[in-house]
Specification:
The protein is α/β, with parallel strands linked by helices and 471 residues long. The chain has helices at 24-39, 62-72, 84-87, 91-104, 121-154, 178-190, 195-205, 217-224, 251-262, 264-271, 318-336, 339-342, 351-373, 379-404, 410-414, 424-433, 436-446, and strands at 8-15, 43-51, 78-81, 107-110, 116-117, 232-235, 238-242, 283-284, 291-294, 304-307, 315-317, 447-451, 466-470. The strands form 4 sheets. Strands 2-1-3-4-5 form a 5-stranded mixed sheet, with helices on both faces. Helix 9 (251-262) packs across helix 14. The longest helix is centred in the N-terminal third of the chain and has 34 residues, at 121-154. The radius of gyration is 34 Å and the shape is elongated. Residues 160-267 form the Recombinase domain.
Length: 471
């Protein structure tokens, strides 16, 4: 130690996991490294710290890079670390340190694992052995962590790492008002409300995402398709069983919602929010294409629903067509109300049976890899069976989605009230307060609107040239 007296030295500290954000581990390392520097009589010229960065994670270590630059520049001749594995666990990093230390005569001292002289062949050999041991320890630790994570998942335990999911606190307890917002959104989306409308309402409420951002279609879709909402445990992207926490959304409703939001045929429709009631819903009587609102040039010409196909097959005054269709809807509500219609399509759906069937097919699909590995099936047979099972699982998901989403939109007029208890005046009031997007979805769930060409000379709106085809 006498030869190192008064030498310029630097200290490097690192802690790979800082759960509190207080850098306690790195501070403890720094204190003991300072004591070692003082006991050796060294002049401390610099300290370097990388907190919450593993040396074997592949992530950049900013201060480690600065340390190498300072070593190469000859800023100090002694490097002090708490343990050699705080400096490197990657053989690649060790070789970089050797290249610099060998040329500059850097001495490495540690608090708890002895000194290391990388300027000699024996020292470099020891360094490489220690690096190999550290790598094996890191890999073994990763294997144990993966096994522990899988055991936790199979036991249905709440995963508390990372950010909390919207709707729950860090321990898995439902959090208000987020849980209520999610339940309402699930019902509303299945009933036909767009993700855009949900995002707008959530932003207006002042409740942000977990990270404090404003809501978008993508954010809403992501939180609604989180399996934790139904108390389902996910491991490595796969649902592996029930969780031991309280669900926010019933599993049957959630699975239907998940399939509903992932259905490519519904994907754009769920996110899209129309500005005019019949846009994309009313159909051309000639080509069956959708009609959209156009605003002709000139102040005195009103907006109209028109066919965009070449030839401009049909067009109809927007206000007049909307008014006519609205009267048809209100007449339907006066005659039938909501109660009976809201139950349509759900009677006789065995949600538990469908879920059990889906789980059995998913398990069979998972077992195909074992059959391939043991030689029971060849690759071609596995691919065929996998395709069949995937199609059957998708079909079950569609049945669940159709069951929980039938009929769309009408449920939104009922809100939290008993549909059978709503009188005509209340229904009319809620219809008038509904957005064009919701009105359009209600229309589309009840009947098809077909706009036919009019005879020559007909200038005013005539309902005889509009077909209402009930579904």
């Amino acid at each position: 130690m006498d030869t190192l007296v008064a030498m310029r030295c630097a200290i490097y500290t690192r802690i790979s996991r800082d759960l509190t954000g207080e850098q306690v581990g790195a501070d403890r390392q720094l204190k003991e490294c300072r004591e070692l520097a003082d006991s050796g009589g060294h002049e401390l010229v610099a300290t370097y710290r990388d907190n919450d960065v593993s040396a074997y994670s592949g992530r950049a270590r900013p201060d480690f890079e600065k340390l190498l630059d300072a070593m190469a520049a000859g800023d100090f001749s002694v490097l002090i670390v708490w343990h050699i594995d705080r400096l490197y666990r990657s053989m690649k990093d060790l070789e970089r340190i050797i290249d610099v230390a060998e040329g500059g005569g850097i001495q490495i001292q540690t608090v708890s694992s002895g000194d290391l002289d990388l300027s000699t062949s024996a020292g470099r050999m020891i360094g490489r052995i220690l690096g190999s041991v550290a790598r094996q320890e890191s890999e073994h630790h990763a294997e144990r962590r993966k096994l522990a994570n899988k055991e936790h998942a199979l036991a249905g335990r709440w995963c508390s790492t990372g950010s909390r999911p919207f709707g729950y606190d860090k321990t898995g307890v439902p959090l208000e008002p987020e849980a209520t917002m999610l339940r309402h959104a699930a019902t509303d989306v299945l009933a036909g409300k767009s993700l855009h409308a949900v995002a707008r309402e959530w932003n207006a409420s002042g409740v942000t995402t977990v990270r404090g951002a404003q809501w978008t279609n993508l954010h809403v879709r992501r939180v609604l398709t989180n399996a934790r909402l139904a108390a389902l445990r996910v491991h490595r992207g796969e649902i592996i069983g029930q969780g031991a926490w309280e669900p926010i959304i019933d599993e049957g409703i959630w699975r239907g919602l998940w399939a509903f939001l992932r259905d490519p045929e519904r994907r754009n429709a769920v996110a899209f929010e129309r500005r005019h009631m019949l846009s994309g819903i009313a159909r051309c009587g000639l080509c069956k294409g959708p009609l959209y609102v156009a605003r002709p040039h000139g102040r005195d010409r009103p907006a109209a629903y028109v066919c965009r196909r070449p030839g401009a097959h049909v067009g109809r005054n927007q206000a007049a067509l909307d008014g006519y269709v609205e009267r048809v809807v209100l007449g339907y509500l006066e005659r039938h109300g909501l109660g009976a219609d809201l139950r349509r399509g759900q009677d006789g759906v065995d949600f538990d049976g469908l879920r059990a069937e889906r789980e059995a097919k998913a398990t069979t699909k998972d077992q195909l890899a074992t059959l391939l590995r043991t030689g029971v099936l060849d690759m071609a047979a596995v691919e065929r069976e996998s395709a069949v099972l995937t199609a059957e699982i998708d079909a079950i998901d569609r049945r669940l989605a159709d069951a929980v989403a039938s009929p769309p939109a009408l449920a939104l007029l009922a809100g939290e009230d008993d549909p059978a208890a709503l009188d005509t005046d209340k229904l009319v009031e809620r219809w008038l307060a509904a957005s064009p997007d919701l009105r359009g979805k209600i229309v589309n769930s009840l009947f098809e609107v077909v706009v036919n060409p009019v005879r020559k000379g007909v200038r005013n709106f005539d309902p005889d040239f509009v077909e209402i085809n009930w579904r």
